[in-house]
Amino acid sequence: MRRGYPRIALPLRAIPIATRARSLATSRPRRAAVATKPPSQPTILLSSPSPEYIEQEEIDVDLLPPDQAQIVITDRAAEQLRSISAREADPGAALRIAVESGGCHGYQYKMELAKSRALDDYHFSHPIVKPSNILVDAVSLSLLNGSTIDYATELIGSSFRVLENPHAKGSGCGCGVSWELKT
């Protein structure tokens, strides 16, 4: 109790809302881990490249069979993709994810919004949240297969991220974009 001010006990409902103490909610690591859990149903593969096209274009890649191609899309990432699609008024809007040589660990992720699917793309969607399109070219999928795609919101900005890539050695660079291939 401060000096000179008498203490008065009032029931909470008698205190105006504007003068009540406000609480600040933060996420703790254990809550953040729950938020990135994969959907209860597996991600859907909507389409895959044709072997004829890959052969015709002479792309040096072994195509993954549709039953083995897998990208996990978290609920947060799917909601953000749905929001982008609504804002663009385009149900075909998609996140294109590619793997390129470079970065401080040998490989880096490249992500951009795409309006259409290329003939060498695998097309994934969240099982419940629609539209939530993710496109990965055949060469990149060989390095991303089994990865989880999430959307993170932080004080410094928000972005899509590749998590739990089974082909990446360690956690990669601090930026979350550059990584090293397991040998």
UniProtKB/TrEMBL annotation:
In this record, what's one Pfam family? Fe-S_biosyn
Q: Which InterPro entries match?
A: ATAP, ATAP_core_dom, HesB-like_dom_sf
Renumbered to this chain, region (Disordered) spans 26-47
Name the GO terms of the biological process aspect: iron-sulfur cluster assembly
Gene Ontology cellular-component terms listed: mitochondrion
Give residue ranges for domain Core. 70-175
Q: Name one GO molecular function term.
A: iron ion binding
What family is this protein classified in? Belongs to the HesB/IscA family.
Write the protein's name.
Core domain-containing protein
Q: Which organism is it from?
A: Mycena maculata
Organism taxonomic ancestry: Eukaryota, Fungi, Dikarya, Basidiomycota, Agaricomycotina
